[in-house]
Amino acid sequence: MININQNIIMIKNQNHLGGICMILSVLFFSLMDVLIKITDEYDVGQVMFSRALFGLIPIFFLIPKEKLKNFYKTKRVKLHFYRSFVGAIAMWAIFVGLLGEKIKARRWTAVGLGFIGVLIISKPGFDNLNFYYIYPVIFTLGFAGVSIFIRKLTLVGEPVYLIAFYFSVCAAIFGLFTLPFGGWLMPTSYDLGLLILIGVFGSIANLLLTKSYQLAEVSLTTPLKYLSLVFAIIFGFYLFNEVPTIYTLSGAGLIVISSAIIFIREHQLKKPITFPRQQ
Q1: Contact 277, 150 (CB under 8 A)
Q2: How far apart are CA 119 and CA 123, in angstroms?
Q3: Using one digit for the tens of pLDDT, what is the confidence trace for 121-165?
Q4: Closest CA to 152 of 103, 101, 107
Q5: CA distances from 14 to 137, 222, 257, 271, 278 (A)
Q6: Distances from the Cα of 25 to the Cαs of 110, 143, 227, in angstroms?
């Protein structure tokens, strides 16, 4: 069998590969978001629990056979706790919202263009302001913390599957806390399939996110998260008949330009790929 890492080493630019992982991560997160909107009759805690429980499926496929008995052992308990706790809060916040390194000049330019694109799409104002606006803000703050903790864990050699595993366990516990308060429903066979896909897609997205931060700098890959709005526009148009406005299309264009700037710049640098030591 061909070693996957040997194929990856053939790509000369480590940050470039990290960016690709981030874009794929955003795509799978966007697919997960679509399914969450479809299953909006279910309680946030129930969806969160399903995301975590079924999200364990892809994770176990990555665990080496020789480590199945003790794969959960780690010397970085505190870092895993911080990443999992902050990540669980961020997940809860974005689910509620859906149901209800040093940075150089060019990279700042890319971040700025992407952010301007976000502003053009969202057209922030106070006309339709409501309580649920706070949840995406909470998610953004939480995601910033998650990015930092994931990067730290990967730099000290923690395996991608282990980082994702502890996050899933923590998120499942968070979701279970809502069970005594009611609101959970027995899903139909069809909805159960959707909940399983939410977990699988979300887990794949999280694994790709972690791999992205293992390969590349946080300041490079995080701006690519803006592409989630571009995917949201595409899915909204084809699945929910949401026609984009000129503001939406203009903002999406700036986001795509900012992503292109990142990739062109990193391609020019051509940094060699090096992999963190796996425990």
Answers
A1: no
A2: 5
A3: 445 544 454 544 555 556 656 666 777 788 888 888 899 999 999
A4: 101
A5: 31, 15, 21, 6, 17
A6: 19, 14, 10
